[in-house]
Design a protein that fits this description.
Blueprint lengths: L3 E6 L4 H14 L3 E7 H9 L6 E7 L1 H10 L9 E8 L2 E7 L1 H5 L6 H19 L1
Antiparallel strand pairs: 1-5, 2-3, 3-4, 4-5
Helix pairs in contact: 1-5, 3-5
């Protein structure tokens, strides 16, 4: 089992790809809670040039609430990260696979929740 799902988008520039990803996340019931522009951050903090790379922290409030009820420290793994990065030939969109990351937690109540989140995130990436 891989820890992420990904797809390379061709024909879009970075901004257009990000708009597509945000729209797909919204359509699957996710909001974007956090955004990290890695390229800008690395440039500002350590003077390093880096390819376009953005981390979007996505959250489905209903499923997050269920997860928090099942495991009070699950917030350490929330929100679900979705990345966009420039790669040769396009823009890669990748999302964390919650089922893989939840394997480290010994709480059977999280299995169904992780599978539901995983299915939604996979559908987001597949729909791009």
């Amino acid at each position: 089992m891989t820890y992420y799902f990904s797809k390379t988008l061709r024909g879009d520039d970075f901004d257009a790809a990000e708009e597509r990803v945000r729209a797909a996340l919204k359509g699957a019931g996710f909001g974007v809670l956090t955004e990290i522009d890695v390229k800008s951050t690395l440039k500002d903090k350590i003077g390093v040039e880096f390819r376009p790379y953005k981390i979007l922290g996505a959250c489905n409030p209903e499923l997050a609430h269920k997860a928090l009820q099942a495991e009070d420290r699950i917030g350490a793994l929330l929100p679900c990260n979705v990345i966009l990065q420039e790669v040769n030939g396009g823009i890669e969109a990748a999302a964390v696979n919650p089922v893989a990351s939840m394997q480290a937690i010994d709480n059977p109540a999280l299995i169904d929740i992780a599978e539901a989140v995983s299915a939604r995130l996979r559908s987001v990436i597949d729909a791009l």
